[in-house]
Design brief:
233 residues, alpha+beta, Outer membrane lipoprotein wza fold like, wza like fold, three-stranded antiparallel β-sheet, 5 helices
């Protein structure tokens, strides 16, 4: 029995050194920290957005359209246009080019009337994992709060934010929410972007407790509270 307990202790020690769930996430300090929503890149139109297309000199062509699941919108004269992932300014330029053969003065503006696909995903050690609407300026801590808050086993110092980087490649940032909660570094509470994933890992000791419950308490007659002593047979 003593050998079994010894092996169990070695396994417990190895579990306490478990690596984070994402390989080599980048510490937030190595990125420029954005503290204001107005420093973010210009908004790009998403599926489900409602757009107002206005013509200054041809108001009869004014339309309100919704970006379809295929990313397109349907308009008079020019039929279908891919709008998804364009900025409003880029879509305005594209429409101006498309309408130029048909209108003498194609002065057009595009207004995003409502946002249909603004959301982030919160998972891991939170009370209610799932989708959180991204309405206005939402930070990591605010999204976690909307997901019911952190569980006791949450690894607060290494919350992971996964987002699309350049060339649509995912990047992973580690955020120290503990410093946000105690007020020592509010810059860690970064604003979220559409389709970000906020993952709150479990503390290594929590994984150990699950392992202890499943494999030691149920199979080996030892007393955890008495310092891994065991009962003689």
């Amino acid at each position: 029995m003593g050998k079994i307990v010894g092996v169990s202790l070695l396994v417990l020690l190895s579990l306490t050194g478990c690596a984070p769930v994402v390989k080599n996430p980048t510490p937030l300090s190595q990125h420029s920290i954005q503290t204001s929503p107005y420093t973010e890149q210009e908004y790009r139109i998403q599926v489900g957005d409602q757009l107002d297309i206005k013509f200054f000199y041809n108001p009869e062509l004014n339309e309100q359209v919704t970006v379809r699941p295929d990313g397109r919108i349907s308009l008079q004269l020019v039929r279908e246009i891919i709008a998804s992932d364009l900025t409003p300014a880029q879509l305005t330029d594209l429409l101006t080019q498309k309408y130029a053969p048909n209108l003498q003065r194609p002065e057009i503006t595009v207004i995003v009337r409502s946002f249909g696909s603004q959301r982030v995903y919160v998972d891991g050690e939170v009370a209610k994992p799932g989708i959180v609407p991204l309405v206005g300026f939402v930070t990591v801590l605010q999204a976690i709060s909307q997901a019911g808050g952190l569980k006791d086993a949450a690894r607060r110092g290494e919350v992971i934010v996964i987002r699309h980087g350049t060339a649509n490649k995912p990047i992973a940032l580690t955020v120290n929410i503990e410093k946000v909660i105690d007020g020592t570094d509010m810059r860690q509470d970064i604003p979220l972007k559409p389709f970000d994933i906020v993952y709150v890992p479990r503390l290594p000791i929590a994984n150990v407790n699950v392992w202890v419950d499943q494999y030691i308490r149920r199979n080996i007659p030892i007393s955890i509270s008495s310092g891994f002593g065991y009962y003689p047979q």
